Amino acid sequence: MIKVGDTLPDARLFEFVEVAGEGCAVGPNGFSARERTAGKRVVIFGLPGAFTPTCSAKHAPGYVEAAERLNAAGIDEIWCVSVNDAFVMNAWGRDLQTSGKVKMIADGAARFTQALGLEQDLSERGMGIRSQRYAMVVDDGVVKTLNVEAPGKFEVSDAESILATLR
């Protein structure tokens, strides 16, 4: 499992872009996690799945609500990463009104999650390979804080816990 002091894996993630821009077409756009965090402070939180109960009611909304305070504490971007495709992550982001606050990042094949060593097998529950629930602060591609939840818990990966580490 990744730990504090490690560099993020050079895995490819995807973000759905609604408006074409320089180098970004409308639709899913792939990027290197390591390259995208270069020179930035990023909070990355991972969760088991889009539209799931705790993820939709508490985890992601907490980061949307705390986005301004995280930015004021020196965070450049906030990523919500889930083992879902970019279309699902985009729809979930619209539902949660994350625009301009939290980037909804797709790890559809779980490559990033597995490279972190933070996968879990939820096949018996009909979900397949998914992410454990976690949050990290990454500074210039290096993990500075890593909070991984115990199975079935939601106590250390919330936005308030990450804000406390930034004070």
TrEMBL record:
Catalytic activities: a hydroperoxide + 2 glutathione = an alcohol + glutathione disulfide + H2O
Catalytic site positions: 55 (cysteine sulfenic acid (-soh) intermediate)
GO BP annotation list: cell redox homeostasis; cellular response to oxidative stress; hydrogen peroxide catabolic process
Domain of life: Bacteria
Thioredoxin domain segment(s): 2-167
Keywords, alphabetical: Antioxidant, Oxidoreductase, Peroxidase, Redox-active center
Enzyme Commission number(s): 1.11.1.27
GO molecular function, one term: thioredoxin peroxidase activity
Function: Thiol-specific peroxidase that catalyzes the reduction of hydrogen peroxide and organic hydroperoxides to water and alcohols, respectively. Plays a role in cell protection against oxidative stress by detoxifying peroxides.
Family (UniProt): Belongs to the peroxiredoxin family. Prx5 subfamily.
Protein name: Glutathione-dependent peroxiredoxin
Organism: Caballeronia choica
Organism phylogeny: Bacteria, Pseudomonadati, Pseudomonadota, Betaproteobacteria, Burkholderiales
